[in-house]
Amino acid sequence: MRLLVIAGFAESIILFRGALILDMVRAGCEVHVAAPGLERQSTIGAKLGLGPDRLHDIPMARAGANPLADLASLAALYRLMRRVRPDAVLPYTIKPVIYGTLAAWAAGVPQRFALITGLGYAFTEGKSGITRRAVHFLFGLALGRASKVFFQNPDDERLLREKGILPDRVPSVVVNGSGIDVSDFSLQPLPASPGFLMIARLLGDKGVREYAEAARRIRVDHPQAIFRLVGWIDANPDTISQAELDAWVDAGVIEFLGKLPDVRAAIAEAAVYVLPSYYREGTPRTILEAMAMGRAVITTDAPGCRETVVEGENGFLVPPKSVDALVDAMRKFITDPSLAQRMGARSRQIAEDKYDVRKVNAVMLREMGIGQVEQDGAPHAA
User: Fold this and answer.
1) Same-domain check for residues 8 and 26
2) What is the DSSP string of 204-266?
3) Strand extents, DSSP E, 267-352
4) pLDDT reported for residue 234
5) Beta-strand pair 372-373/379-380
6) Distance between terminal CA atoms of the chain?
7) Which domain holds residue 367?
8) pLDDT higher than threshold 50 for residue 319
9) What confidence tens digit (pLDDT) does each residue in 131-150 have?
10) How many domains would you assign to the chain?
11) Burial of 136 by CB count in 10 Å (0-12 exposed, 13-18 middle, 19+ buried)?
């Protein structure tokens, strides 16, 4: 099978789809990858074992809604597919799914798979406007032409079915997120200090403000508690301002570590991972990374996040936007340090059983009709 993977962000390819692409190659696929800015990522081909003829730079803005630019993306993808002639396409994230699927349908690509890795800003509760309606319309137009749609949580699948965006005739499969390499993110001993960590793009909908306010309140009574934040300011209508971030840092509420190419050291220095998001996540990879390293989790009872926590076993679920509930959950770990040890061990077990990337990939390969890959890397027939 000749297969084209389409990304909206070149840096995401290795981190989020590298293991899947490698398993596709091991199963005998001729894999091509398309993404904006790919020509500047010189190591991607080497890490995936793909020559330059398999890597395709395409014009596509990750954020924003410029109709002319989006039409240019659609046209570029159509021309690429007519040239490469893939047997199947697998776009992921919203823009690649919309324009990649439509281009594949127009170009006559036989198998058009779509991977929904979260619904993001346009589907977050309370958002409205022309852009939201346009995304809903285009999403429906594209998914109606898909052969099969993969979701990373059942809430997204249910929402798109209920809204009629995903027609009944199009089959869908829910997989356990993007998976995590449990050998790369190995179990680490807990630090002595009661440290909390959040990793996210600095968006309001990710719960960054709630995290900062909870930290401010807790430090009044527990000044020894450490609250670290990893991330970056993003081009988004709901982004945290630099002034707001600076105010938290200057007040000693947050230790800001910036954007890290490798988050494992930051996770190792924390006892508890916190993600109070209400963004319409797929399944947050940062939670899976923390779980694999043996960290307890506090996250929201919201789509994508709630699947990662068994309440009271490997962490706590809190209502979205509730600072009071977030503070209560954090204080439990400060007053009873043994919780982090017990819940962290359970997190590691769940990561191994449910979120191991090889298990997740095996489901996707089978559903795409691609030969499976044994644990030693040797392909066998599906």
Assistant:
1) yes
2) GGGTHHHHHHHHHHHHHH-TT-EEEEEEE--SSTTBPPHHHHHHHHHTTS-EEEE--S--HHH
3) 272-275, 296-300, 315-318
4) 80
5) antiparallel
6) 13
7) 2-179+357-376
8) yes
9) 778 889 999 999 999 999 99
10) 2
11) middle
